[in-house]
Automatic annotation (TrEMBL):
<dbReference type="InterPro" id="IPR002575">
    <property type="entry name" value="Aminoglycoside_PTrfase"/>
</dbReference>
<protein>
    <recommendedName>
        <fullName>Aminoglycoside phosphotransferase domain-containing protein</fullName>
    </recommendedName>
</protein>
<feature type="region of interest" description="Disordered">
    <location>
        <begin position="218"/>
        <end position="238"/>
    </location>
</feature>
<dbReference type="InterPro" id="IPR011009">
    <property type="entry name" value="Kinase-like_dom_sf"/>
</dbReference>
<dbReference type="Pfam" id="PF01636">
    <property type="entry name" value="APH"/>
</dbReference>
<feature type="domain" description="Aminoglycoside phosphotransferase">
    <location>
        <begin position="256"/>
        <end position="349"/>
    </location>
</feature>
């Protein structure tokens, strides 16, 4: 096991609890319970984990990361350095983050003390009021995503004389803001975005409903003595409706920096999967299978979304027209087949969350695969889809779900035909 995989194992195991107690002891706080939310391992970079820690009278969110920090960083953040046999880690309390200064503004509504001349200075409400051109108040704020050192996403409800509206706030490294604003201008389907300062990107709510929402059909709740209830059928979605969203990406997308797809970096994904508990031999054999099937000429370089999955594609109510593409962070030049593999890989994962509610997904996956194979090589598409599943494996919520991802990835690189795979 290499160092990254070993460190990921530490972040997932009981040693993490000892580290959490270590950071709280100087404050005379004893954790009564702790829970790992997620581990985020970046191949070739740091691994970070998010924990919810219960203490008498309060609930804390703590981060343990392999990121390198200077003495000055640690002092400014109140971070603690800890050594283990697997390497050095740092521990700090959210919403402090060495790369995401906007977290403090969003979570605490803190005034920006330094650089008051910055056009984005002030509380979150003041910043949103300036961007919207009218006085508004924040009536609801809910965190949806937190990836330490990388990004956070919040759903905000603001109220003004014009009523209530929903905004999404994405907190990123401030240096990334110009590139993100440029990516949001690459398609008419990508919602507009504005800079609120300190790496806070403000995005209006997208029109329509996500593809995930269209496909999710839970059975209605009913009393045990009531009549049997069935799942409402999901709409019949044509694969062309899905791929039409990619056609909306404009030619100037090709001027942006390229991003490596999971297929291009699949070998570097293996340590994260092993550290998450997957069998090392199976993971390495999967990597060999992906390498054997990947094409070196998968097609021309075209505008791509880079993270084209069901939650990022919004359709109208009949699910017949693409209405929005969200999460434009990865928009840039690439291969169309990688976007298609990302969509197919995520479709494959959905039944592992709720097989009955996503019962319509296998049929859509079959039809989507057949549509893709009319223009793309079968083995190459299968290998790229397997690489997507490998990239998702560390985020699996259970051992059963992890097995679902791994088993499907192995099948995609195996001898079965595409038709057999999705029966």
């Amino acid at each position: 096991m290499d160092q990254l995989a070993a460190l990921v194992s530490v972040l997932r195991g009981p040693t993490a609890g000892e580290l959490l107690r270590l950071v709280l002891e100087p404050a005379d706080v004893a954790p009564s319970a702790w829970k790992l939310e997620q581990v985020y391992a970046r191949p070739g970079a740091e691994a970070s984990a998010l924990y919810h820690v219960e203490t008498p009278g309060m609930l804390l969110t703590l981060v343990i990361s392999t990121a390198s920090l200077t003495d000055q960083d640690r002092e400014a953040m109140g971070a603690v350095r800890a050594e283990s046999a697997q390497g050095t880690v740092h521990i700090w309390a959210h919403p402090v983050d060495p790369e995401l200064p906007g977290l403090l503004v969003v979570e605490a509504g803190a005034e920006v003390e330094a650089g008051a001349e910055h056009s984005g200075s002030g509380t979150l409400e003041e910043r949103l009021s300036r961007l919207l051109g009218e006085q508004c108040s924040l009536t609801e704020l809910r965190r949806l995503v937190l990836r330490p050192l990388r990004r956070a996403v919040y759903r905000a409800v603001v109220s003004s004389v014009r009523g209530e509206r929903v905004l999404y706030l994405k907190v990123v490294k401030p240096a990334k803001m110009p590139g993100l604003l440029q990516r949001h201008r690459c398609s008419m389907l990508i919602p507009s975005a504005a800079d609120a300062g300190d790496g806070i990107l403000v995005i209006p709510e997208a029109p329509g409903r996500s593809l995930t929402h269209h496909l999710y059909r839970p059975a209605p709740s009913t009393a045990t003595s009531g009549p049997a209830h069935h799942h409402e059928p999901a709409p019949h979605i044509h694969p062309k409706t899905i791929t039409s969203a990619l056609d909306s990406l404009m030619p100037h997308t090709l001027e942006l920096p390229a991003r490596e797809s999971p297929a291009q970096r699949h070998r570097s994904l293996e340590p994260g999967a092993i550290g998450a508990g997957a069998d090392p031999q199976r993971v390495r054999e999967l990597g060999d299978g992906i390498a054997a099937k990947l094409s070196t000429t998968p097609g021309p370089v075209v505008p791509t979304h880079g993270d084209f999955h069901p939650a990022n594609l919004f359709l109208d109510e009949p699910a017949s027209t693409a209405k929005a593409l969200i999460d434009a962070d990865t928009v840039g030049p690439g291969y169309r087949v990688d976007d298609l593999a990302t969509m197919l890989g995520h479709l494959i994962t959905l039944p592992s969350f709720d097989r009955a509610a996503y019962c319509a997904v296998p049929d859509l996956a079959r039809r989507f695969l057949a549509h893709c194979l009319s223009e793309h090589d079968s083995e190459d598409l299968r290998a790229r889809t397997a690489a997507v599943l490998l990239s998702l494996l560390p985020g699996a919520e259970s051992s059963d779900q992890q097995e679902h991802y791994l088993r499907w990835a192995e099948a995609l690189t195996g001898p079965l035909s595409p038709a057999d795979l999705l029966r």
